[in-house]
Amino acid sequence: MSKNTVNKQSHIWGIDISRSGNELIVGLACENRRDVVSALSRVPFGNGQIFLCTLRIFQELASDNPQSAVAKKMFLNLLETSQDKPVWE
């Protein structure tokens, strides 16, 4: 079972999901929490996969800021990865 986890003191947004069978791609940790939450995970679903993400990737795609290059590269990597065969076969 998944739930949204928010740390209001540090403004950390992530998803607290079971690691069993899921691939953690980007994790978030905070000094006042003991667990690591997922900011980006790949979850098997049927014959494919679903990416769960709490990062601001889509908002940064239209940005001209130099920092948005990371989000743009991550988005391209996700598109490329989504066309690959699932790793769970």
Task: Describe this structure as you would to a colleague.
- The protein has helices spanning 57-61, 68-82, and strands at residues 3-7, 12-16, 23-28, 37-45, 48-53.
- The chain has two helices and five strands, in the order E-E-E-E-E-H-H.
- The strands form two sheets. It has a three-stranded antiparallel β-sheet, with no helix packed on it. Strands 1-2 form a two-stranded antiparallel ribbon.
- It has 89 residues and is of the alpha+beta class.
- The protein has one domain (3-82).
- The chain starts with a strand and ends in a 7-residue tail after the last helix.
Q: What is the percent of helical residues?
A: 10-25%
Distance between the termini: 23 Å
Sequence stretches where pLDDT stays below 50 over 5 or more residues:
none
Kindly report the spatial arrangement of strands forming the biggest sheet.
3-4-5
Provide a count of the helices. Answer: 2
Write down the domain tally. Answer: 1
Strand composition percent: 25-35%
Give the averaged pLDDT, no decimals. 76
Query: What spatial form do the alpha-carbon principal axes imply?
Result: flat
How large, in whole angstroms, is the Cα Rg?
Answer: 14 Å
